[in-house]
Design a protein that fits this description.
Strand content: 5-15%
CATH class of the largest domain: Alpha Beta
Strand order of the largest sheet: 3-2-1-4-5-6-7-8
Radius of gyration: 24 Å
Number of domains: 2
Oligomer: single chain
Largest sheet: 8 strands, mixed
Order of helices and strands: HEHEHHEEHEHEEHEHHHHEHEHEHEE
Number of helices: 14
Length: about 450
Protein backbone atom coordinates (compact mmCIF):
# COMPACT_ATOMS: atom_id res chain seq x y z
CA UNK A 1 0.00 0.00 0.00
CA UNK A 2 1.25 3.49 -0.80
CA UNK A 3 2.30 5.34 2.33
CA UNK A 4 0.56 8.63 2.98
CA UNK A 5 2.66 11.79 2.99
CA UNK A 6 3.49 13.33 6.38
CA UNK A 7 0.19 13.79 8.15
CA UNK A 8 1.16 17.00 9.94
CA UNK A 9 3.30 20.03 9.19
CA UNK A 10 6.94 19.74 10.30
CA UNK A 11 7.81 21.04 13.79
CA UNK A 12 9.18 24.39 12.64
CA UNK A 13 5.69 25.45 11.48
CA UNK A 14 4.22 25.31 14.97
CA UNK A 15 3.59 21.65 15.94
CA UNK A 16 6.08 19.70 17.97
CA UNK A 17 7.77 22.78 19.40
CA UNK A 18 6.66 25.59 21.68
CA UNK A 19 6.30 28.68 19.50
CA UNK A 20 4.52 31.66 20.97
CA UNK A 21 2.80 29.77 23.76
CA UNK A 22 -0.68 28.36 24.11
CA UNK A 23 -2.48 31.14 22.27
CA UNK A 24 -0.52 30.69 19.04
CA UNK A 25 -0.69 26.90 19.15
CA UNK A 26 -4.40 27.02 19.93
CA UNK A 27 -5.06 29.38 17.05
CA UNK A 28 -3.11 27.20 14.66
CA UNK A 29 -5.01 24.08 15.75
CA UNK A 30 -8.38 25.81 15.23
CA UNK A 31 -7.27 27.09 11.81
CA UNK A 32 -6.03 23.64 10.74
CA UNK A 33 -9.38 22.15 11.76
CA UNK A 34 -11.28 24.74 9.74
CA UNK A 35 -9.11 24.23 6.65
CA UNK A 36 -9.04 20.43 7.06
CA UNK A 37 -5.25 20.42 7.39
CA UNK A 38 -5.67 18.83 10.79
CA UNK A 39 -5.04 15.07 10.89
CA UNK A 40 -7.22 13.07 13.29
CA UNK A 41 -5.63 10.15 15.13
CA UNK A 42 -7.97 7.50 16.52
CA UNK A 43 -6.69 4.93 19.02
CA UNK A 44 -8.84 1.79 18.98
CA UNK A 45 -10.57 0.75 15.76
CA UNK A 46 -13.53 -1.21 17.07
CA UNK A 47 -17.25 -0.48 17.18
CA UNK A 48 -16.57 3.12 18.25
CA UNK A 49 -13.28 4.00 16.57
CA UNK A 50 -13.98 2.72 13.05
CA UNK A 51 -17.33 4.53 12.61
CA UNK A 52 -15.67 7.66 13.97
CA UNK A 53 -12.85 7.31 11.44
CA UNK A 54 -15.39 7.03 8.62
CA UNK A 55 -17.18 10.13 9.91
CA UNK A 56 -14.04 12.30 9.97
CA UNK A 57 -12.93 11.03 6.55
CA UNK A 58 -16.37 11.90 5.20
CA UNK A 59 -15.95 15.42 6.59
CA UNK A 60 -12.73 15.93 4.62
CA UNK A 61 -10.12 15.07 7.26
CA UNK A 62 -7.25 12.64 6.94
CA UNK A 63 -7.38 9.99 9.65
CA UNK A 64 -4.68 7.83 11.17
CA UNK A 65 -6.09 4.81 12.98
CA UNK A 66 -4.00 3.05 15.61
CA UNK A 67 -4.82 -0.45 16.86
CA UNK A 68 -2.81 -3.09 18.70
CA UNK A 69 -4.35 -5.90 16.63
CA UNK A 70 -2.15 -6.44 13.54
CA UNK A 71 -4.94 -8.38 11.81
CA UNK A 72 -7.28 -5.41 12.03
CA UNK A 73 -4.59 -3.05 10.78
CA UNK A 74 -3.83 -5.29 7.79
CA UNK A 75 -7.52 -5.73 6.95
CA UNK A 76 -8.26 -2.02 7.05
CA UNK A 77 -5.27 -1.08 4.92
CA UNK A 78 -6.57 -3.57 2.33
CA UNK A 79 -9.95 -1.86 2.42
CA UNK A 80 -11.69 -4.64 4.35
CA UNK A 81 -14.15 -4.06 7.18
CA UNK A 82 -14.70 -6.48 10.08
CA UNK A 83 -17.81 -4.72 11.41
CA UNK A 84 -21.17 -5.56 9.83
CA UNK A 85 -22.63 -2.05 9.68
CA UNK A 86 -19.41 -0.54 8.26
CA UNK A 87 -19.29 -1.85 4.67
CA UNK A 88 -15.93 -2.69 3.13
CA UNK A 89 -16.81 -0.32 0.27
CA UNK A 90 -16.60 2.59 2.74
CA UNK A 91 -13.19 1.51 4.00
CA UNK A 92 -11.90 0.96 0.44
CA UNK A 93 -12.98 4.48 -0.49
CA UNK A 94 -11.24 5.96 2.56
CA UNK A 95 -8.00 4.12 1.72
CA UNK A 96 -8.19 4.73 -2.04
CA UNK A 97 -8.65 8.46 -1.55
CA UNK A 98 -5.71 8.48 0.88
CA UNK A 99 -7.94 9.78 3.66
CA UNK A 100 -7.23 6.87 5.98
CA UNK A 101 -4.36 4.68 7.07
CA UNK A 102 -4.14 2.17 9.92
CA UNK A 103 -0.99 1.55 11.92
CA UNK A 104 0.37 -0.34 14.93
CA UNK A 105 3.11 2.22 15.53
CA UNK A 106 2.37 4.76 18.26
CA UNK A 107 5.14 7.03 16.97
CA UNK A 108 2.92 7.84 13.99
CA UNK A 109 0.69 9.83 16.36
CA UNK A 110 3.23 12.68 16.37
CA UNK A 111 1.85 13.60 12.95
CA UNK A 112 -1.67 14.09 14.28
CA UNK A 113 -3.33 17.32 15.32
CA UNK A 114 -5.88 15.52 17.49
CA UNK A 115 -5.79 12.09 19.16
CA UNK A 116 -9.12 10.48 20.08
CA UNK A 117 -9.06 7.56 22.54
CA UNK A 118 -11.65 4.85 21.81
CA UNK A 119 -10.52 1.87 23.89
CA UNK A 120 -12.57 -0.53 26.06
CA UNK A 121 -13.50 0.21 29.67
CA UNK A 122 -14.75 -3.16 30.99
CA UNK A 123 -15.42 -4.30 34.54
CA UNK A 124 -13.29 -6.57 36.68
CA UNK A 125 -14.79 -9.76 38.13
CA UNK A 126 -15.67 -7.77 41.24
CA UNK A 127 -17.48 -5.15 39.11
CA UNK A 128 -14.88 -2.47 39.61
CA UNK A 129 -13.76 -0.32 36.66
CA UNK A 130 -10.94 -1.87 34.64
CA UNK A 131 -9.03 1.19 33.49
CA UNK A 132 -6.02 -0.74 32.20
CA UNK A 133 -6.73 -0.01 28.53
CA UNK A 134 -7.24 3.70 29.15
CA UNK A 135 -4.15 3.95 31.36
CA UNK A 136 -1.88 2.10 28.93
CA UNK A 137 -3.17 4.23 26.04
CA UNK A 138 -2.58 7.46 27.97
CA UNK A 139 0.96 6.35 28.85
CA UNK A 140 1.62 5.50 25.21
CA UNK A 141 0.39 8.92 24.09
CA UNK A 142 2.43 10.73 26.76
CA UNK A 143 5.60 9.35 25.18
CA UNK A 144 4.80 10.89 21.80
CA UNK A 145 2.65 13.88 22.83
CA UNK A 146 3.46 17.08 20.91
CA UNK A 147 2.84 20.72 21.84
CA UNK A 148 -0.37 21.98 20.27
CA UNK A 149 -2.10 18.61 20.06
CA UNK A 150 -5.64 17.93 21.27
CA UNK A 151 -6.31 14.68 23.15
CA UNK A 152 -9.92 13.59 23.68
CA UNK A 153 -11.14 10.55 25.60
CA UNK A 154 -14.31 8.91 24.23
CA UNK A 155 -14.40 5.73 26.32
CA UNK A 156 -17.27 5.59 28.81
CA UNK A 157 -15.95 6.04 32.32
CA UNK A 158 -16.63 7.45 35.79
CA UNK A 159 -16.79 11.21 36.46
CA UNK A 160 -13.31 12.55 37.18
CA UNK A 161 -11.34 10.19 34.92
CA UNK A 162 -10.06 12.80 32.47
CA UNK A 163 -9.11 15.28 35.17
CA UNK A 164 -7.72 12.92 37.80
CA UNK A 165 -6.32 10.03 35.76
CA UNK A 166 -5.63 11.03 32.15
CA UNK A 167 -4.28 14.54 32.75
CA UNK A 168 -1.48 13.53 35.18
CA UNK A 169 -0.36 10.70 32.89
CA UNK A 170 -0.20 12.97 29.84
CA UNK A 171 1.64 15.62 31.85
CA UNK A 172 4.39 13.08 32.56
CA UNK A 173 5.54 14.15 29.09
CA UNK A 174 6.63 17.48 30.58
CA UNK A 175 3.83 19.28 28.73
CA UNK A 176 0.97 20.98 30.57
CA UNK A 177 -2.73 20.81 29.73
CA UNK A 178 -4.21 24.11 28.51
CA UNK A 179 -0.69 25.51 28.19
CA UNK A 180 1.14 23.08 25.89
CA UNK A 181 -1.62 20.68 24.80
CA UNK A 182 -5.41 20.50 25.00
CA UNK A 183 -7.51 17.85 26.72
CA UNK A 184 -11.20 17.00 26.45
CA UNK A 185 -13.80 14.33 27.05
CA UNK A 186 -16.57 13.49 24.58
CA UNK A 187 -18.51 10.27 25.23
CA UNK A 188 -19.22 7.91 22.36
CA UNK A 189 -22.89 7.33 21.60
CA UNK A 190 -22.67 4.45 19.15
CA UNK A 191 -25.64 2.11 18.86
CA UNK A 192 -24.74 -0.65 16.37
CA UNK A 193 -27.56 -1.60 14.04
CA UNK A 194 -29.46 1.70 14.15
CA UNK A 195 -30.48 3.17 10.83
CA UNK A 196 -32.35 6.27 12.01
CA UNK A 197 -29.23 7.80 13.59
CA UNK A 198 -25.56 7.60 12.62
CA UNK A 199 -22.30 8.82 14.12
CA UNK A 200 -22.66 12.00 12.05
CA UNK A 201 -26.20 12.80 13.23
CA UNK A 202 -26.05 11.93 16.94
CA UNK A 203 -25.27 15.13 18.92
CA UNK A 204 -21.84 15.06 20.57
CA UNK A 205 -21.45 16.18 24.18
CA UNK A 206 -18.04 17.81 24.74
CA UNK A 207 -16.30 18.88 27.93
CA UNK A 208 -12.84 20.44 28.15
CA UNK A 209 -10.23 20.55 30.90
CA UNK A 210 -10.30 24.33 30.34
CA UNK A 211 -11.74 26.93 27.99
CA UNK A 212 -9.07 26.48 25.28
CA UNK A 213 -9.51 22.72 25.31
CA UNK A 214 -13.28 23.05 25.08
CA UNK A 215 -13.07 25.44 22.15
CA UNK A 216 -10.64 23.19 20.27
CA UNK A 217 -12.72 20.06 20.87
CA UNK A 218 -15.95 21.81 19.85
CA UNK A 219 -14.27 22.98 16.66
CA UNK A 220 -13.06 19.46 15.84
CA UNK A 221 -16.28 17.58 16.55
CA UNK A 222 -18.43 20.36 15.13
CA UNK A 223 -16.56 20.04 11.82
CA UNK A 224 -17.61 16.40 11.40
CA UNK A 225 -20.79 15.92 13.43
CA UNK A 226 -24.11 17.69 12.99
CA UNK A 227 -24.18 19.14 16.50
CA UNK A 228 -21.52 19.50 19.19
CA UNK A 229 -22.88 20.39 22.64
CA UNK A 230 -20.41 22.02 24.99
CA UNK A 231 -20.66 21.56 28.77
CA UNK A 232 -18.78 23.21 31.61
CA UNK A 233 -16.29 20.42 32.39
CA UNK A 234 -15.03 16.96 31.51
CA UNK A 235 -16.73 15.68 34.66
CA UNK A 236 -20.15 16.81 33.42
CA UNK A 237 -19.57 15.18 30.03
CA UNK A 238 -18.45 11.93 31.70
CA UNK A 239 -21.49 11.92 33.97
CA UNK A 240 -23.91 12.60 31.11
CA UNK A 241 -23.03 9.30 29.44
CA UNK A 242 -23.34 7.40 32.71
CA UNK A 243 -26.78 8.96 33.27
CA UNK A 244 -27.96 7.90 29.80
CA UNK A 245 -27.14 4.28 30.51
CA UNK A 246 -28.27 4.25 34.14
CA UNK A 247 -31.65 5.49 32.91
CA UNK A 248 -31.94 2.58 30.49
CA UNK A 249 -30.59 0.04 32.97
CA UNK A 250 -33.10 1.01 35.67
CA UNK A 251 -36.09 0.97 33.32
CA UNK A 252 -35.10 -2.35 31.75
CA UNK A 253 -34.73 -3.81 35.25
CA UNK A 254 -38.23 -2.58 36.08
CA UNK A 255 -39.78 -4.28 33.05
CA UNK A 256 -37.74 -7.45 33.62
CA UNK A 257 -39.01 -7.68 37.19
CA UNK A 258 -42.56 -7.09 35.96
CA UNK A 259 -42.09 -9.85 33.39
CA UNK A 260 -41.28 -12.39 36.11
CA UNK A 261 -44.26 -11.28 38.17
CA UNK A 262 -46.71 -11.21 35.26
CA UNK A 263 -45.56 -14.65 34.07
CA UNK A 264 -46.67 -16.01 37.45
CA UNK A 265 -49.97 -14.17 37.12
CA UNK A 266 -50.57 -15.55 33.65
CA UNK A 267 -50.41 -12.10 32.02
CA UNK A 268 -48.43 -11.36 28.85
CA UNK A 269 -45.98 -8.56 29.69
CA UNK A 270 -45.54 -7.72 26.00
CA UNK A 271 -49.26 -7.06 25.61
CA UNK A 272 -49.19 -4.93 28.76
CA UNK A 273 -46.34 -2.78 27.41
CA UNK A 274 -48.13 -2.43 24.06
CA UNK A 275 -51.29 -1.27 25.80
CA UNK A 276 -49.46 1.21 28.04
CA UNK A 277 -47.64 2.61 24.99
CA UNK A 278 -50.90 3.96 23.60
CA UNK A 279 -50.66 6.78 26.13
CA UNK A 280 -49.21 9.75 24.20
CA UNK A 281 -47.43 11.26 27.19
CA UNK A 282 -45.81 10.23 30.47
CA UNK A 283 -44.76 6.77 29.32
CA UNK A 284 -41.81 5.41 27.33
CA UNK A 285 -41.82 1.70 26.49
CA UNK A 286 -38.97 -0.55 27.59
CA UNK A 287 -38.92 -4.24 26.78
CA UNK A 288 -37.84 -7.33 28.74
CA UNK A 289 -35.21 -9.75 27.57
CA UNK A 290 -32.90 -12.60 28.58
CA UNK A 291 -30.37 -10.20 30.12
CA UNK A 292 -28.39 -7.11 29.22
CA UNK A 293 -25.77 -7.06 26.49
CA UNK A 294 -23.45 -4.70 24.68
CA UNK A 295 -20.66 -2.62 26.14
CA UNK A 296 -22.78 0.08 27.78
CA UNK A 297 -25.84 -0.82 29.84
CA UNK A 298 -24.43 -3.92 31.61
CA UNK A 299 -21.24 -2.06 32.56
CA UNK A 300 -21.52 1.71 32.78
CA UNK A 301 -23.86 2.01 35.81
CA UNK A 302 -21.32 0.10 37.92
CA UNK A 303 -18.72 2.77 37.14
CA UNK A 304 -20.94 5.24 38.96
CA UNK A 305 -21.63 2.90 41.90
CA UNK A 306 -17.86 2.37 42.27
CA UNK A 307 -17.25 6.11 42.16
CA UNK A 308 -20.05 6.76 44.67
CA UNK A 309 -18.32 4.54 47.25
CA UNK A 310 -15.34 6.90 47.14
CA UNK A 311 -17.72 9.60 48.37
CA UNK A 312 -19.21 7.40 51.11
CA UNK A 313 -22.44 6.95 49.18
CA UNK A 314 -24.29 3.79 48.23
CA UNK A 315 -26.34 3.81 45.04
CA UNK A 316 -28.85 1.16 46.06
CA UNK A 317 -31.31 1.89 43.26
CA UNK A 318 -28.67 1.35 40.56
CA UNK A 319 -27.20 -1.70 42.27
CA UNK A 320 -30.63 -3.31 42.62
CA UNK A 321 -31.30 -2.73 38.93
CA UNK A 322 -28.04 -4.41 38.09
CA UNK A 323 -28.92 -7.39 40.27
CA UNK A 324 -32.31 -7.83 38.61
CA UNK A 325 -30.86 -7.67 35.11
CA UNK A 326 -28.00 -10.06 35.85
CA UNK A 327 -30.48 -12.62 37.20
CA UNK A 328 -32.44 -12.79 33.95
CA UNK A 329 -30.35 -15.53 32.22
CA UNK A 330 -31.02 -17.85 35.17
CA UNK A 331 -34.72 -17.03 34.99
CA UNK A 332 -34.73 -17.95 31.28
CA UNK A 333 -33.04 -21.27 32.04
CA UNK A 334 -35.69 -22.00 34.68
CA UNK A 335 -38.36 -21.43 32.02
CA UNK A 336 -36.54 -23.79 29.65
CA UNK A 337 -36.42 -26.44 32.38
CA UNK A 338 -40.12 -26.03 33.13
CA UNK A 339 -41.02 -26.26 29.44
CA UNK A 340 -38.97 -29.44 29.02
CA UNK A 341 -40.42 -30.94 32.18
CA UNK A 342 -43.92 -30.34 30.84
CA UNK A 343 -42.97 -32.65 27.98
CA UNK A 344 -41.49 -35.21 30.39
CA UNK A 345 -37.91 -34.30 29.44
CA UNK A 346 -34.91 -33.28 31.52
CA UNK A 347 -32.54 -30.43 30.74
CA UNK A 348 -29.65 -32.76 31.56
CA UNK A 349 -28.94 -34.47 28.27
CA UNK A 350 -31.38 -32.37 26.26
CA UNK A 351 -30.36 -30.91 22.89
CA UNK A 352 -30.85 -27.13 22.87
CA UNK A 353 -30.40 -24.76 19.94
CA UNK A 354 -29.82 -21.09 20.85
CA UNK A 355 -30.97 -18.71 18.12
CA UNK A 356 -28.90 -15.53 18.12
CA UNK A 357 -25.50 -15.00 19.70
CA UNK A 358 -25.31 -11.21 19.20
CA UNK A 359 -26.50 -9.07 22.11
CA UNK A 360 -29.19 -7.37 19.98
CA UNK A 361 -31.02 -7.95 16.71
CA UNK A 362 -29.36 -7.53 13.32
CA UNK A 363 -25.81 -6.85 14.57
CA UNK A 364 -22.66 -8.97 14.83
CA UNK A 365 -21.62 -7.61 18.24
CA UNK A 366 -21.41 -10.28 20.97
CA UNK A 367 -19.90 -8.14 23.73
CA UNK A 368 -21.54 -9.00 27.07
CA UNK A 369 -24.23 -10.90 25.16
CA UNK A 370 -26.66 -12.78 27.44
CA UNK A 371 -26.65 -15.57 24.84
CA UNK A 372 -23.13 -16.51 25.89
CA UNK A 373 -24.14 -16.84 29.53
CA UNK A 374 -27.24 -18.80 28.52
CA UNK A 375 -25.07 -21.29 26.61
CA UNK A 376 -22.64 -21.65 29.52
CA UNK A 377 -25.43 -22.24 32.05
CA UNK A 378 -27.13 -24.76 29.76
CA UNK A 379 -23.87 -26.67 29.34
CA UNK A 380 -23.21 -26.59 33.09
CA UNK A 381 -26.59 -28.23 33.61
CA UNK A 382 -25.77 -31.01 31.17
CA UNK A 383 -27.50 -29.82 28.00
CA UNK A 384 -25.95 -30.35 24.59
CA UNK A 385 -25.94 -26.87 23.08
CA UNK A 386 -25.52 -25.44 19.58
CA UNK A 387 -26.21 -21.98 18.26
CA UNK A 388 -27.19 -20.26 15.03
CA UNK A 389 -26.54 -16.65 14.18
CA UNK A 390 -26.49 -15.34 10.59
CA UNK A 391 -24.09 -12.56 11.61
CA UNK A 392 -21.72 -14.53 13.86
CA UNK A 393 -20.36 -17.54 11.93
CA UNK A 394 -17.99 -18.54 14.74
CA UNK A 395 -17.20 -17.45 18.29
CA UNK A 396 -13.91 -15.82 19.21
CA UNK A 397 -11.99 -15.67 22.46
CA UNK A 398 -13.22 -12.97 24.80
CA UNK A 399 -11.88 -11.69 28.10
CA UNK A 400 -13.89 -14.16 30.18
CA UNK A 401 -15.43 -16.51 27.61
CA UNK A 402 -14.19 -18.88 24.95
CA UNK A 403 -17.05 -21.01 23.63
CA UNK A 404 -15.15 -22.42 20.59
CA UNK A 405 -18.38 -22.91 18.65
CA UNK A 406 -19.56 -22.41 15.08
CA UNK A 407 -23.00 -21.40 13.89
CA UNK A 408 -25.09 -24.38 12.76
CA UNK A 409 -27.04 -23.97 9.49
CA UNK A 410 -30.81 -24.14 9.87
CA UNK A 411 -32.94 -26.76 8.15
CA UNK A 412 -36.27 -28.46 8.82
CA UNK A 413 -34.57 -31.70 9.86
CA UNK A 414 -32.04 -29.86 12.01
CA UNK A 415 -34.70 -27.87 13.90
CA UNK A 416 -36.72 -31.00 14.58
CA UNK A 417 -33.69 -32.74 16.07
CA UNK A 418 -33.52 -30.37 19.07
CA UNK A 419 -35.56 -30.81 22.22
CA UNK A 420 -35.75 -27.02 22.57
CA UNK A 421 -35.09 -24.00 20.38
CA UNK A 422 -34.29 -20.97 22.56
CA UNK A 423 -34.78 -17.59 20.85
CA UNK A 424 -32.24 -15.33 22.53
CA UNK A 425 -31.84 -12.67 19.80
CA UNK A 426 -34.68 -11.73 17.47
CA UNK A 427 -32.80 -11.23 14.19
CA UNK A 428 -35.00 -10.03 11.33
CA UNK A 429 -33.57 -12.70 9.01
CA UNK A 430 -35.29 -15.50 10.92
CA UNK A 431 -38.57 -16.89 9.60
CA UNK A 432 -40.21 -17.48 12.96
CA UNK A 433 -43.32 -19.20 11.60
CA UNK A 434 -41.08 -21.70 9.80
CA UNK A 435 -38.96 -22.19 12.91
CA UNK A 436 -41.98 -22.81 15.14
CA UNK A 437 -43.51 -25.18 12.60
CA UNK A 438 -40.49 -27.50 12.52
CA UNK A 439 -39.24 -27.21 16.11
CA UNK A 440 -40.43 -29.49 18.90
CA UNK A 441 -40.45 -26.68 21.48
CA UNK A 442 -39.67 -22.95 21.25
CA UNK A 443 -38.79 -20.80 24.26
CA UNK A 444 -39.08 -17.16 23.18
CA UNK A 445 -37.33 -14.44 25.22
CA UNK A 446 -37.99 -11.60 22.74
CA UNK A 447 -41.66 -11.96 21.73
CA UNK A 448 -40.35 -12.81 18.26
CA UNK A 449 -43.12 -15.37 17.71
CA UNK A 450 -45.99 -12.96 18.37
CA UNK A 451 -47.13 -13.06 14.72
CA UNK A 452 -47.03 -16.85 14.48
CA UNK A 453 -50.65 -17.96 14.00
CA UNK A 454 -50.21 -21.74 14.07
CA UNK A 455 -48.43 -24.26 16.33
CA UNK A 456 -48.66 -21.84 19.24
CA UNK A 457 -48.87 -24.72 21.71
CA UNK A 458 -45.16 -25.22 21.04
CA UNK A 459 -44.27 -21.69 22.19
CA UNK A 460 -43.31 -20.76 25.75
CA UNK A 461 -42.45 -17.14 26.51
CA UNK A 462 -39.59 -16.43 28.89
Amino acid sequence: MEVLPPMMPPPETGYGVRLGGATLMHGKLIEDIKTRKAVVGIVGLGYVGLPLARTFCGAGFRVLGLDVDPKKVAQLNKGQSYIKHIPSASVKKMVREKKFRATENAKDLVRCSAILICVPTPLTKTRDPDMSYVVSTAKMISKVLQPGQLVALESTTYPGTTRELIRPILEESGLRAEKDFFLAYSPEREDPGRTDFTTETIPKVVGGIGSKSLKAALALYGAAISKAVGVSSCDVAECSKILENVYRCVNIALINELKVLLDRMGIDVWEVVKAASTKPFGFQPFYPGPGLGGHCIPIDPFYLTWRARQFDMSTRFIELSGEINTRMPNYVISRVMDALNAGKKSLNGAKVLVLGLAYKKDVDDIRESPSIELIEILEEKGAKVDYNDPFVPATHKQREHNLRMRSKPLSEKMLASYDCVLIATDHSEYDYSWIVKHAQLVVDTRNATEACKSHRRKIVKA
